[in-house]
Amino acid sequence: MIPLITRTPRLTLLAASRALLTAELHKPHYFPVLLGAAMPADWPPGEYDEEAGRYFLAQLTAGGRTAAGWYGWYAILRATDEQPATLIGAGGFWGPPDAAGTAEIGYSISADWRGKGLATELVAGLIQQAESTGMVRRLIAHIRPDNAASEQVLLRNDFQLVDPDTEGRMRFERAVTPATDTL
C-alpha cells in the first residue's frame, strides 16, 4: 500500500482524496475544515488550478484505491506557536509510473509563501514519496523557460536539465532509488 502522508522538516504532504477534491471544487467552505488547515488568499496557486483538481478527481474516481497517492498532494505548513497549520501549496504526480518506472511531478506554491524554500521542500517530499513506493525509477518535471525559481527548486533536488525545449518547456529528470522492504 502506498503511504498517503509524507513529512518533511516543515511540511506535511497529504495525498488528495475524492472527499478532499470534491470539497475543494464544490464546497470550498468545507475544504479547510476537512484539511485541518488555514487557506492562503490566492488558492489555488499557480499552475495547480481547477482543471488540475478536476483531472485528479476524475483519475481517483476511475482508478479507485489503486490510484490513491498517484495524483495531487496538498502541502501543509505545520502549526507553530505563531501560526496555525496552513495550506501553502500543492504538488504531486500526473499518474502512476509507466512500465519503465517513470513518473512526472508538478508543484505550485501560493504567492505569500514563495521564496522561503518551501517549494524545494515540497519537491523533496515528492521524491521521498516516489522512493517509498518502490515503483519509481525516474522522475521528470516540465517547467516554462521563464520560471527561474522553479528551475532552482529542481536543481536543488538533483534534477538535471535534459531537454531545454520540449514544446516550449524545459524537461528535467532525476533518478530515484526505490525503497526496499526488509522484514
From TrEMBL:
The keyword Transferase applies. Gene3D superfamilies: 3.40.630.30. The keyword DNA repair does not apply. One of its GO terms (molecular function) is acyltransferase activity, transferring groups other than amino-acyl groups. Keywords: Transferase. Pfam families: Acetyltransf_3. PROSITE patterns: GNAT. Signal peptide: none annotated. This is GNAT family N-acetyltransferase. InterPro entries: Acyl_CoA_acyltransferase, GNAT_dom, N-acetyltransferase. Residues 33-175 form the N-acetyltransferase domain.
